[in-house]
């Protein structure tokens, strides 16, 4: 019973992290908005099951990376308020990871939806 409670607690902590990121991070709100719009398009255009799989995976990668980026930013700010090249590198690399995923997500969106738009 105790182990079951522990598992539930972990789930709640993870959920609380998702809610915190969604409430406090502007970029997270932007990603969630784009994800919602893409899913509306997916329903409207009746995309295939394979296209749904790629779309959901892409959305998951972008949102997860944005959360990891947010976590890295907060840990860096917790460790030091001073200007430090390692702090800069950590934040810039994490932001770069989100950027790469977001650019790929735009490419995936175009590849999936463009044929439906011009049909
Ligand atoms: N302690 C630091 N030392 C050196 N450079 C830093 C430091 N903190 C931030 N920077 C630089 O400033 C940039 C912006 O950092 P900031 O903490 O404002 O995050 P952000 O990318 O604006 O994200 P958010 O708006 O979500 O907080 C970083 O990408 C980094 O280049």
Describe the structure.
The protein has 119 residues and is mostly helical. It has a single domain, classed as Helix Hairpins. Helices cover 91% and strands 0% of the residues. It is flat. The termini are far apart. The model has no long low-confidence stretch (mean pLDDT 96). The structure holds adenosine-5'-triphosphate. Adenosine-5'-triphosphate binds next to helix 4. It is an enzyme of class 2 (transferase). One of its GO terms (cellular component) is plasma membrane. The active site is at residue 66. Pfam families: DAGK_prokar (PF01219).
Kindly list the characteristics that best describe this protein.
119 residues; 4 helices; binds adenosine-5'-triphosphate; flat; single chain; metal-binding; mainly alpha; Helix Hairpins; lipid biosynthesis; 0% strand
Short account of what is shown:
Keywords: ATP-binding, Cell membrane, Kinase, Lipid biosynthesis, Lipid metabolism, Magnesium, Membrane, Metal-binding, Nucleotide-binding, Phospholipid biosynthesis, Phospholipid metabolism, Transferase, Transmembrane, Transmembrane helix. 91% of the residues lie in helices and 0% in strands.
Largest sheet: none
Rounded mean pLDDT score: 96
Q: Low-confidence runs (pLDDT<50, min 5 residues)?
A: none
Q: Which fold name fills CATH's third level, the topology?
A: Helix Hairpins
Terminal residue distance: 56 Å
Report the radius of gyration as a whole number of Å: 18 Å
Structural class: mainly alpha
Subcellular location: Cell membrane
GO biological process, one term: phospholipid biosynthetic process
Binding site for substrate: 66
Active site: 66 (proton acceptor)
């Amino acid at each position: 019973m105790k182990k079951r409670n522990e598992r539930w607690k972990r789930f709640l902590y993870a959920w609380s992290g998702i809610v915190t990121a969604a409430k406090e991070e502007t970029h997270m709100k932007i990603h969630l908005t784009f994800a919602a719009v893409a899913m509306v398009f997916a329903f409207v255009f009746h995309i295939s099951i394979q296209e749904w799989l790629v779309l959901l995976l892409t959305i998951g990668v972008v949102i997860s990376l944005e959360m990891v980026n947010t976590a890295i930013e907060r840990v860096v700010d917790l460790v030091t308020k001073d200007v430090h090249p390692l702090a800069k590198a950590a934040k810039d690399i994490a932001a770069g990871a989100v950027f790469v995923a977001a650019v790929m997500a735009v490419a995936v969106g175009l590849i999936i939806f463009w044929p439906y738009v011009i049909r």
